[in-house]
Amino acid sequence: MFDVIKIFVDELNVGKRLDIFICEKLIHYSRSFVQKQFSNGNILVNEKCASKHYKVKFGDVICVNFAEPEPFNVVKQNIDLDIVYEDDYLLVVNKKRGMVVHPAPGNYSCTLVNALMWHCEGRLAPIGGVIRPGIVHRIDKNTTGLLVVAKTDSAFKSLSSQIKDHILKREYVAIAHGIFKQKVGVINLPIGRSFKNRKKMAVNFVNGKQAITQYEVLGEYNNFTYLKLTLKTGRTHQIRVHMAYLGHPIAGDDLYGRRLDASKFGLECGQCLHSRNIVFYHYKFGKNICVSAMPDEYFSNFLNRCQEEL
Asked: Which of these, 224, 273, 294, 306, has the minimum number of CB atoms within 10 Å of its CB?
Protein backbone atom coordinates (compact mmCIF):
# COMPACT_ATOMS: atom_id res chain seq x y z
CA MET A 1 0.00 0.00 0.00
CA PHE A 2 1.08 3.59 -0.62
CA ASP A 3 0.44 6.95 0.95
CA VAL A 4 -0.24 9.24 -2.03
CA ILE A 5 0.38 12.96 -1.63
CA LYS A 6 -0.37 15.55 -4.33
CA ILE A 7 1.45 18.88 -4.46
CA PHE A 8 0.56 21.72 -6.83
CA VAL A 9 3.27 24.15 -7.94
CA ASP A 10 2.40 27.82 -7.42
CA GLU A 11 4.07 30.90 -8.89
CA LEU A 12 6.39 31.38 -5.90
CA ASN A 13 8.14 28.05 -6.47
CA VAL A 14 8.59 28.06 -10.25
CA GLY A 15 12.12 27.05 -11.28
CA LYS A 16 13.03 25.13 -8.13
CA ARG A 17 14.64 21.73 -8.44
CA LEU A 18 12.06 19.01 -7.90
CA ASP A 19 13.74 17.22 -4.98
CA ILE A 20 14.35 20.51 -3.14
CA PHE A 21 10.76 21.61 -3.73
CA ILE A 22 9.37 18.33 -2.35
CA CYS A 23 11.61 18.46 0.74
CA GLU A 24 10.44 22.02 1.46
CA LYS A 25 6.80 20.98 1.22
CA LEU A 26 7.07 17.70 3.12
CA ILE A 27 9.13 18.76 6.10
CA HIS A 28 8.44 15.62 8.14
CA TYR A 29 10.34 13.44 5.64
CA SER A 30 14.12 13.41 5.50
CA ARG A 31 15.93 14.40 2.33
CA SER A 32 17.51 10.94 2.05
CA PHE A 33 14.06 9.33 2.24
CA VAL A 34 12.78 11.59 -0.55
CA GLN A 35 15.81 10.73 -2.68
CA LYS A 36 15.05 7.03 -2.18
CA GLN A 37 11.55 7.57 -3.59
CA PHE A 38 13.09 8.99 -6.78
CA SER A 39 15.19 5.83 -7.09
CA ASN A 40 12.08 3.69 -6.61
CA GLY A 41 10.11 5.62 -9.23
CA ASN A 42 7.56 6.78 -6.67
CA ILE A 43 7.52 10.45 -7.71
CA LEU A 44 5.54 11.62 -10.73
CA VAL A 45 5.13 15.01 -12.38
CA ASN A 46 1.93 15.33 -14.42
CA GLU A 47 1.57 11.51 -14.24
CA LYS A 48 5.07 10.87 -15.61
CA CYS A 49 8.27 9.82 -13.83
CA ALA A 50 10.60 12.75 -13.33
CA SER A 51 14.21 13.33 -12.43
CA LYS A 52 15.11 14.98 -9.16
CA HIS A 53 16.87 17.64 -11.28
CA TYR A 54 13.64 18.65 -13.03
CA LYS A 55 12.82 22.38 -12.60
CA VAL A 56 9.18 22.69 -11.56
CA LYS A 57 6.76 24.80 -13.61
CA PHE A 58 3.63 26.68 -12.65
CA GLY A 59 0.63 24.33 -12.56
CA ASP A 60 2.68 21.12 -12.34
CA VAL A 61 0.94 18.37 -10.39
CA ILE A 62 3.44 16.36 -8.38
CA CYS A 63 2.33 12.99 -7.10
CA VAL A 64 4.42 11.46 -4.32
CA ASN A 65 3.72 7.78 -3.66
CA PHE A 66 5.51 7.17 -0.40
CA ALA A 67 5.71 3.47 0.33
CA GLU A 68 4.47 2.56 3.78
CA PRO A 69 7.30 1.76 6.20
CA GLU A 70 8.00 -1.86 6.93
CA PRO A 71 6.14 -3.25 9.94
CA PHE A 72 7.86 -2.31 13.15
CA ASN A 73 7.08 -3.54 16.62
CA VAL A 74 7.78 -1.09 19.42
CA VAL A 75 9.53 -2.85 22.27
CA LYS A 76 7.97 -2.33 25.69
CA GLN A 77 10.56 -1.11 28.19
CA ASN A 78 10.26 -0.66 31.93
CA ILE A 79 11.48 2.94 32.19
CA ASP A 80 10.48 5.27 35.01
CA LEU A 81 7.92 7.87 33.99
CA ASP A 82 6.57 10.92 35.80
CA ILE A 83 2.82 10.53 35.19
CA VAL A 84 1.06 13.63 36.52
CA TYR A 85 -2.48 12.74 35.38
CA GLU A 86 -4.10 9.52 34.19
CA ASP A 87 -7.50 7.95 33.60
CA ASP A 88 -8.90 5.22 31.35
CA TYR A 89 -8.82 7.44 28.26
CA LEU A 90 -5.62 9.48 28.38
CA LEU A 91 -2.66 10.50 30.47
CA VAL A 92 -0.28 13.43 30.89
CA VAL A 93 3.42 12.72 31.35
CA ASN A 94 6.18 15.06 32.48
CA LYS A 95 8.90 14.10 29.96
CA LYS A 96 12.44 14.14 31.26
CA ARG A 97 15.41 15.77 29.57
CA GLY A 98 17.26 13.66 27.02
CA MET A 99 14.32 11.37 26.21
CA VAL A 100 13.17 11.13 22.59
CA VAL A 101 9.38 11.00 22.24
CA HIS A 102 9.04 8.17 19.72
CA PRO A 103 11.25 5.66 17.86
CA ALA A 104 13.12 6.98 14.82
CA PRO A 105 16.35 6.10 13.00
CA GLY A 106 19.08 6.01 15.62
CA ASN A 107 16.58 5.92 18.49
CA TYR A 108 14.56 2.72 18.38
CA SER A 109 14.64 2.11 22.12
CA CYS A 110 14.49 4.01 25.43
CA THR A 111 11.98 6.49 23.97
CA LEU A 112 8.86 7.79 25.66
CA VAL A 113 6.74 5.47 23.50
CA ASN A 114 8.78 2.43 24.61
CA ALA A 115 8.15 3.42 28.22
CA LEU A 116 4.45 4.16 27.65
CA MET A 117 3.91 0.79 25.98
CA TRP A 118 5.12 -0.84 29.20
CA HIS A 119 3.22 1.49 31.52
CA CYS A 120 -0.06 1.14 29.60
CA GLU A 121 0.49 -2.54 28.80
CA GLY A 122 0.25 -1.73 25.09
CA ARG A 123 -3.09 0.06 25.41
CA LEU A 124 -2.41 3.24 23.46
CA ALA A 125 -4.47 4.75 20.64
CA PRO A 126 -3.47 2.81 17.49
CA ILE A 127 -4.66 5.70 15.31
CA GLY A 128 -1.40 7.42 16.19
CA GLY A 129 0.47 4.87 14.06
CA VAL A 130 2.84 1.98 14.70
CA ILE A 131 5.75 4.20 15.69
CA ARG A 132 3.73 6.86 17.52
CA PRO A 133 0.78 5.14 19.23
CA GLY A 134 -1.12 7.64 21.38
CA ILE A 135 1.25 10.53 20.62
CA VAL A 136 -0.84 13.63 19.92
CA HIS A 137 1.95 16.22 20.04
CA ARG A 138 5.70 16.22 20.68
CA ILE A 139 8.46 18.17 22.36
CA ASP A 140 12.16 18.04 21.57
CA LYS A 141 14.62 15.60 23.11
CA ASN A 142 16.15 18.16 25.49
CA THR A 143 12.95 20.07 26.17
CA THR A 144 11.24 18.92 29.34
CA GLY A 145 7.66 18.97 30.45
CA LEU A 146 4.10 18.00 29.80
CA LEU A 147 2.73 15.89 26.97
CA VAL A 148 -0.81 14.56 26.73
CA VAL A 149 -1.10 10.99 25.42
CA ALA A 150 -4.23 9.24 24.12
CA LYS A 151 -5.12 5.71 25.17
CA THR A 152 -8.17 5.45 22.89
CA ASP A 153 -8.86 6.54 19.32
CA SER A 154 -11.71 8.76 20.55
CA ALA A 155 -9.33 10.56 22.89
CA PHE A 156 -6.76 10.91 20.10
CA LYS A 157 -9.32 12.46 17.73
CA SER A 158 -10.60 14.85 20.40
CA LEU A 159 -7.15 16.03 21.45
CA SER A 160 -5.89 16.37 17.87
CA SER A 161 -8.95 18.47 17.02
CA GLN A 162 -8.32 20.69 20.04
CA ILE A 163 -4.74 21.30 18.92
CA LYS A 164 -5.87 22.09 15.39
CA ASP A 165 -8.56 24.50 16.64
CA HIS A 166 -6.22 26.08 19.25
CA ILE A 167 -8.39 24.88 22.15
CA LEU A 168 -5.68 22.87 23.89
CA LYS A 169 -3.50 25.41 25.74
CA ARG A 170 0.26 24.91 26.15
CA GLU A 171 2.35 27.19 28.33
CA TYR A 172 6.14 27.03 28.52
CA VAL A 173 8.81 28.71 30.61
CA ALA A 174 12.29 29.41 29.27
CA ILE A 175 15.52 31.25 29.99
CA ALA A 176 16.68 33.32 27.03
CA HIS A 177 19.77 35.37 26.29
CA GLY A 178 19.49 39.14 26.52
CA ILE A 179 16.99 41.66 27.86
CA PHE A 180 13.71 42.26 26.01
CA LYS A 181 12.69 45.84 25.18
CA GLN A 182 9.03 44.85 25.22
CA LYS A 183 8.05 42.88 28.31
CA VAL A 184 4.94 41.38 26.68
CA GLY A 185 4.61 40.55 23.02
CA VAL A 186 3.28 38.36 20.23
CA ILE A 187 5.62 36.82 17.66
CA ASN A 188 3.82 36.09 14.39
CA LEU A 189 6.47 34.82 11.98
CA PRO A 190 6.11 31.86 9.58
CA ILE A 191 8.30 28.82 10.14
CA GLY A 192 9.53 26.33 7.55
CA ARG A 193 12.55 24.24 6.71
CA SER A 194 15.81 26.21 6.56
CA PHE A 195 17.22 26.73 3.07
CA LYS A 196 20.79 26.61 4.43
CA ASN A 197 20.57 23.63 6.77
CA ARG A 198 17.96 20.90 6.25
CA LYS A 199 18.32 19.78 9.86
CA LYS A 200 17.05 23.15 11.08
CA MET A 201 13.82 25.09 10.92
CA ALA A 202 13.84 28.83 10.28
CA VAL A 203 11.65 31.88 9.90
CA ASN A 204 10.65 31.33 6.28
CA PHE A 205 8.64 33.97 4.44
CA VAL A 206 8.61 31.99 1.17
CA ASN A 207 6.80 28.80 2.10
CA GLY A 208 6.73 28.72 5.88
CA LYS A 209 3.55 28.06 7.83
CA GLN A 210 2.01 30.57 10.22
CA ALA A 211 3.52 30.36 13.69
CA ILE A 212 2.36 32.45 16.65
CA THR A 213 4.05 32.62 20.05
CA GLN A 214 3.01 34.88 22.92
CA TYR A 215 5.62 35.80 25.51
CA GLU A 216 5.77 37.58 28.85
CA VAL A 217 8.87 38.52 30.82
CA LEU A 218 8.85 37.00 34.32
CA GLY A 219 12.29 38.15 35.42
CA GLU A 220 15.51 39.78 34.23
CA TYR A 221 18.95 38.78 35.53
CA ASN A 222 22.03 40.53 34.12
CA ASN A 223 21.96 39.35 30.51
CA PHE A 224 19.31 36.63 30.77
CA THR A 225 15.52 36.77 30.81
CA TYR A 226 13.08 34.32 32.40
CA LEU A 227 10.02 34.00 30.16
CA LYS A 228 6.53 32.58 30.01
CA LEU A 229 5.56 31.52 26.48
CA THR A 230 2.20 30.41 25.14
CA LEU A 231 1.86 28.54 21.86
CA LYS A 232 -0.96 29.57 19.54
CA THR A 233 0.35 27.17 16.87
CA GLY A 234 2.57 24.11 17.11
CA ARG A 235 5.33 24.23 14.51
CA THR A 236 8.51 22.19 14.83
CA HIS A 237 11.02 23.98 17.12
CA GLN A 238 8.66 26.98 17.18
CA ILE A 239 9.79 28.67 20.39
CA ARG A 240 13.47 27.99 19.75
CA VAL A 241 13.29 29.40 16.20
CA HIS A 242 11.28 32.47 17.17
CA MET A 243 13.56 33.34 20.08
CA ALA A 244 16.73 32.88 18.00
CA TYR A 245 15.31 35.03 15.19
CA LEU A 246 14.67 37.86 17.66
CA GLY A 247 18.26 37.64 18.86
CA HIS A 248 17.27 36.01 22.16
CA PRO A 249 18.12 32.31 21.74
CA ILE A 250 17.19 29.91 24.52
CA ALA A 251 20.07 29.34 26.94
CA GLY A 252 21.74 26.00 26.26
CA ASP A 253 20.23 25.55 22.80
CA ASP A 254 22.99 23.80 20.84
CA LEU A 255 21.13 24.00 17.50
CA TYR A 256 19.79 27.56 17.41
CA GLY A 257 21.69 29.12 20.29
CA ARG A 258 25.18 30.15 21.21
CA ARG A 259 28.01 27.64 21.06
CA LEU A 260 29.70 28.98 24.19
CA ASP A 261 26.75 28.07 26.43
CA ALA A 262 28.05 24.63 27.40
CA SER A 263 31.62 25.64 28.26
CA LYS A 264 30.85 29.06 29.71
CA PHE A 265 27.63 28.37 31.64
CA GLY A 266 27.70 24.61 32.16
CA LEU A 267 24.68 23.95 29.93
CA GLU A 268 25.79 20.65 28.39
CA CYS A 269 22.32 19.06 28.44
CA GLY A 270 20.42 21.32 26.11
CA GLN A 271 18.01 24.22 26.14
CA CYS A 272 16.36 25.71 29.23
CA LEU A 273 12.83 25.20 27.92
CA HIS A 274 10.01 23.52 29.82
CA SER A 275 6.37 22.74 29.05
CA ARG A 276 4.86 23.87 32.37
CA ASN A 277 1.06 23.92 31.92
CA ILE A 278 -1.45 22.13 29.70
CA VAL A 279 -5.19 22.78 29.65
CA PHE A 280 -7.49 20.59 27.55
CA TYR A 281 -11.15 19.65 27.34
CA HIS A 282 -11.87 16.09 28.45
CA TYR A 283 -14.33 14.75 25.91
CA LYS A 284 -15.53 11.99 28.27
CA PHE A 285 -15.94 14.01 31.45
CA GLY A 286 -17.18 17.21 29.79
CA LYS A 287 -14.82 19.56 31.61
CA ASN A 288 -11.43 21.24 31.29
CA ILE A 289 -8.41 19.52 32.81
CA CYS A 290 -5.46 21.68 33.89
CA VAL A 291 -2.11 20.01 34.61
CA SER A 292 1.13 21.63 35.78
CA ALA A 293 4.72 20.50 36.37
CA MET A 294 7.76 22.37 37.62
CA PRO A 295 11.01 22.53 35.57
CA ASP A 296 13.73 20.00 36.27
CA GLU A 297 16.81 20.56 38.44
CA TYR A 298 18.98 21.48 35.43
CA PHE A 299 16.65 24.36 34.52
CA SER A 300 16.06 25.45 38.11
CA ASN A 301 19.74 25.43 39.01
CA PHE A 302 20.61 27.66 36.08
CA LEU A 303 17.75 30.03 36.91
CA ASN A 304 19.00 30.25 40.49
CA ARG A 305 22.50 30.91 39.23
CA CYS A 306 21.19 33.70 37.00
CA GLN A 307 19.42 35.27 39.97
CA GLU A 308 22.37 35.00 42.34
CA GLU A 309 25.58 35.29 40.32
CA LEU A 310 25.36 36.28 36.68
From this structure: 294
CB hemisphere CA count around 218 (13 angstroms):
13
Domains in the chain with CATH codes: 2-67 (3.10.290.10), 83-163 (3.30.2350.10), 170-277+290-308 (3.30.2350.10)
Whether 82 is catalytic is no
The catalytic residue among 19, 60, 80, 140 is: 140
Longest CA pairwise span in the chain (Å)? 65
Over residues 157-210, the pLDDT tens digits come to 999 999 989 999 999 999 999 999 999 999 999 999 888 887 799 999 988 889
CA 264 – CA 256 distance, rounded (Å): 17
Q: What SS3 string covers the chain?
A: CEEEEEEECCHHHCCCEHHHHHHHHCCCCCHHHHHHHHHCCCEEECCEECCCCCECCCCCEEEEEEECCCCCCCCCCCCCCCEEEECCCEEEEEECCCCCCCCECCECCCCHHHHHHHHCCCCCCHHHCCCCCCECCCCCCCCEEEEEEECCHHHHHHHHHHHHCCCCEEEEEEEEECCCCCCEEEEECCEEECCCCCCCEEECCCCCECCEEEEEEEEEECCEEEEEEEECCCCCCHHHHHHHHCCCCECCCCCCCCCCHHHHHCCCCCCCEEEEEEEEEECCCCEEEEEECCCCHHHHHHHHHHHHCC
